[in-house]
Amino acid sequence: MEREAIIEVRGVRNQFGSQVIHDQLDLDIYRGEVLGIVGGSGTGKSVLLRTILGLNKPAAGRIGLFGKARSDMTSAEERAVERRWGVLFQDGALFSSLTVAQNIQVALKEHLHLPQYLLDEIAAVKIALVGLPVEAGPKFPSELSGGMRKRAGLARALALDPEIVFLDEPTAGLDPIGAAAFDDLIKNLQETLGLTVFMVTHDLDSLYAICNRIAVLAEKRVLVTGTIDEMTRQDHPWIKEYFHGPRGRAAVAAKTRNAVA
Prior knowledge:
Layout: E1 5-16, E2 19-30, E3 34-39, H1 45-53, E4 60-65, E5 68-69, H2 75-82, E6 85-88, H3 100-111, H4 116-129, H5 146-157, E7 164-168, H6 176-193, E8 196-200, H7 204-210, E9 213-218, E10 221-226, H8 228-231, H9 237-244, H10 246-260
Parallel strand pairs: 3-8, 3-9, 6-7, 7-8
Antiparallel strand pairs: 1-2, 1-4, 4-5, 9-10
């Protein structure tokens, strides 16, 4: 059965001044998968994410969104597409002057015309969905722990019931227990809601725990895509070092322990 590519990146070139970040970059994101994006420092993982979202305009190439090129879309069509995804930036990127509930309601107010009592009910549902206590709703981001801020950011990303969720280093800054719990949350939400997940990460444990497929950024493009097992068989020096180095071996050992348990 042929997989449906809901986002297609073709021949993309990203550059800032004379610095070329990506050149002739191709990538497909398939419906229902968890895709992990990895690469060394400076390979432009977050730049790629922002380019797909339309926050960065590529110097060349094409971005296809749900079967239509972004360049062929009207502003109304682009706005409609943006309702179909949610984004979790690093550390949640919440509005500091708004409560958690108000942060979640920002997208709802932007795209929908609902009475306040419905906005409050939806926010409460999203807060519960990501495993936050009901008391988190009226709190400000500064009153939350790092892990709770990430969950609040994820609740905001899920506000409009998106089909695809973009995550930028979702477990960065979390301790191992908190990171594992966040991985479990993403996996459970993906399975329960049928989400497609595009995840920029450096966390090998996350790659082993929840990713169906991995894309490696190197040499200004997506060098290779495949499963975690396929990654471990690659001969490229950086990929070998990444997946077979000390952290890679630790991730394999942890996965083996969890499987036995």
